[in-house]
Amino acid sequence: MDAAVKTAISAVSALHPGLEVLQTAYQYYKHVKYSKAKCKSLLTRAERMLQTISQAMSENRCDSSTSNLERLKRQVILVSLRGQVLIRNTHRNLESVRDLMMIQSKISFLKALLRSDDIDHALEEGRESLDDCFTCFQISAHAIVIQHQDEYEAARCDDALEIKQICLRILDMRNDRAVMEALDVKESQADEAMLAMQRELHQNIKESPERTVIEQGLACLQRSTGKAVPTNTPRWTITIYDINVDLETELGGGGFGVVVRGEWRGLEVAVKRMKSDSTKDLIREVEIWYNLHHDHIVPCYGASITADPPFIVLRYMQHGHLLQCLQSSVNVNRALLLYEVSLGMRYLHDENIIHGDIKAVNVLVDDGGKACLTDFGLSTRYRKGHSSKNTSDIGGTLRYMAPEAIETGRLTFATDVYAFATC
Length: 423
Fold this sequence. Notes:
The chain is an alpha+beta fold. It folds into 4 domains: 3-167, no CATH class; 174-225; 243-315, Phosphorylase Kinase, domain 1 (2-Layer Sandwich); 322-422, Transferase(Phosphotransferase), domain 1 (Orthogonal Bundle), CATH 1.10.510. It is built from 17 helices and 9 strands. It has helices at residues 3-10, 16-29, 36-58, 68-74, 81-106, 109-114, 116-136, 142-171, 176-183, 190-203, 209-225, 279-289, 322-328, 334-350, 391-394, 403-408, 413-422, and strands spanning 243-254, 257-264, 267-274, 300-304, 311-315, 353-354, 363-365, 371-373, 380-381. The chain has a 5-stranded antiparallel beta sheet. A two-stranded antiparallel ribbon has the order 6-9. The chain is flat and about 70 Å long.
């Protein structure tokens, strides 16, 4: 990061958190291998944006700072209430840029090929969000925006040329191991990689060096592993090449594994990473969950049974589980939350599904404050004349378990209602 720019931004203390975020983004950028020119262009744009805002506030050229008289009295640059809101929004936009750099710093070449359109879209969104900051601060920056557009187009061409050159080098390789190393595919990811490559070849039939590399890579994987492309995969399959996972941001955990934050098709998601020996349980859970569609059921977007570890992709719920929500805010309509949980439970029962583990931590609250049931690992389908699974086999939380469930080892709609009443 340019030292002069850093000094200029430092003049406004309110921008220091944003400056720290940008510096972290630059640290991630050092490890970026692909789309490097576009990433650098985006970071340069963020630098200029912060520098321009800092200068405008220092010179009192935007309505986010206080009057010159007040500034002279206190010998500091003060920020209006509106300015504080704008700075928080700017900080969030910079965090998005930082997160993009983090994702790009960890991406493999195969993933860069398979998700090139998604990467371009994400970087474009990052650029637009930075441009919006000028508008919010009412700063005229037309010349800067035009300059950046020209630089970004040049960066796009540079990255496209680099990708093509890498592809041509791979096509000249005659050793399967060298091809796999160039694509950065690990042996444990072979099934996932073959599935993702086969899907891409079916969806994109246009001839190009990139497509040829994917074809060659798929053939190399089949030869080196002795495996065929997985067939009869569930319709809800999402591979590791379809998502970005932030292993550093753990959202929760339990006996099943851990939940971390991720990104899928531009959506912020929660990725439930299961224990490696729980594939059978995962299939049963997802087969139930994926087909549930209700305002008070957390959406399940899909899962992978071939990844190591296997995982489920869910909607990200901003306010966490019910206990976290109640502890963090006093202005919560508890009666409404309970009512919403009951609506979710009623929907399940109408679909002949017993949840089997209703409790506060299995109720998540979204950004709109809406309560939704989650975690269907112990759920079963009720069929008349057939008892549900025995509780000793499926587990469950004793504190919320109905007396008849403890006594008989069977779960029913009524045992769900009992659990709801005690949560």
